[in-house]
Amino acid sequence: MRFIFTCDELSSNIMLEEFEQKDPNFKMLKWLNGGIGLAETNGNSKEYAHFIYNKPIIFIRHICKVDLVLTYYSNWKYKVISLAKNKLNRSKTFSIQLRHNTDINLDTNQILTELSTKICEQGFTLDVKNCEQVVSIFIDNQDIYCGVDSVENNLSKFKGGIPHYAENEDFVCRAEFKMKEALDVFDIDTSNLKNGVDFGSAPGGWTKVLAQTGINMVAIDPAEMDKKVLTLKNVEHKKMTIQEYFFHYNDKKFDIIVNDMKMDVQKSIQLMGKFRDKLNPNGLIIMTFKLPKNYTLNLIEKDLLFLQKEFKLITARQLFYNRSEITVVAKSL
After folding, report:
1. d(CA 158, CA 151)
2. Nearest 5 degrees, angle CA 209-CA 8-CA 47?
3. Alpha-carbon distance values, 280 to 147, 256, 257, 284 (Å)
4. How far is CA 76 from CA 108, 134, 148, 306, 329, in A?
5. Model's pTM, two decimal places?
6. Alpha helical stretches, state H, the chain
7. Is a pLDDT exceeding 80 seen at residue 39?
8. For the chain, what percentages of helix, strand and coil (3-state, to nearest 5) are there?
9. Is 90 exceeded by the pLDDT of residue 106?
10. What element of type H or E holds 22?
11. Averaged over 89-105, what is the pLDDT?
12. Residue 163 has pLDDT above 90, yes or no
């Protein structure tokens, strides 16, 4: 299987190191652009997405398999439409994601409109925001890479794994986008999560996002919370340290514990571990590992092993809204 992948350009070398260590069949073919590469491996896209999620391959954001390689000539669009007709499932919605690195003067909006209209004429349903399957196109000068796959197999519903969240009138901080992206990319169902706690919550971005899904949130931080967060009826601010909260309020159980604190990773994990017995069966944790300067893959692997002394690792990824950090999801043992 050939596929196009994306990663943070600054993390490209460590991502290649991950693949070389974890997939002996991985072969890097070429870079298409900064943080965008073409590679090949064995297996199909569903198997490979499962492999990336579970290993996990941390420094990758998005993949799309390559079904066809076309040449930029007059009837390439017809070939894409024909591929979509043969590969798309009519019972599921689709969208088209078009990227390029070419100097050719492209009217991408016109191309997308033309292709989507022709595909819809074949009986398929377009849903740009919440599609279930994607027609992926990458134009590399005279070469056009095209594939059709499910959103799950692409690892992210966002084009190239890059979400675009808008700041609205109740925006608190950029951390909101990190949590929104984690919920979207990891497909976390919050409907059964009733009670949550946010370590080091101020000013309240993560608390706000989770509270707005219906979770009753306890926000722990001696610093002030944003007033827009405190107005939410299902938010309770405990203005104290986590250690103080643990000493004074040790009878409450939680379905989710989140932690975005700027702290040494293993110390942060140890703090989470103190709350292990407060996490309900199948309860989730979401936390960020703050990466030190000149971090290595070996260091991250050690931290993940340290985490697994307290929790069961689900997955980890460097998301678009992560800076020098990765987002880790785990659950109770």
Report:
1. 9
2. 85
3. 42, 8, 10, 8
4. 14, 18, 15, 51, 41
5. 0.94
6. 12-22, 45-54, 76-87, 108-120, 175-185, 205-211, 227-230, 242-248, 265-274, 297-307
7. yes
8. 30, 30, 40
9. no
10. helix 12-22
11. 91
12. yes
Q: Which residue has the tokens 């999801």?
A: 329
d(CA 308, CA 295): 20
User: What's 291's DSSP letter?
Assistant: P
Mean pLDDT of 208-234: 97
Q: How confident is the model at residue 142 (pLDDT cuts 50, 70, 90)?
A: confident
Q: Which amino acid is at 265?
A: V
- Residue type present at position 116: S
CA–CA distance, 300 with 288 (Å, rounded to integer): 12
Please give the average per-residue pLDDT across 40-47, as a whole number: 96
Q: In what order do the strands lie in the sheet with 36-40?
A: 27-33, 36-40, 2-6, 62-65
Asked if residue 73 has pLDDT above 80, the reply is: no
CA 77, chain centre distance (Å)? 30
Q: On the CB side of 35, how many CA atoms lie within 13 Å of its CA? A: 16
Neighbouring CB atoms inside 10 A of 299's CB total 14
What domains lie within the chain, and their CATH numbers? Answer: 1-162 (3.30.2130.30), 175-331 (3.40.50.150)
Task: Give the mean pLDDT of 105-126.
Answer: 94
Tokens read off for 207? 């608390």
Reading the block at residue 217, the tokens are 């949130």
pLDDT at 249: 85
Indicate the pairing of strand 2-6 with strand 62-65.
antiparallel
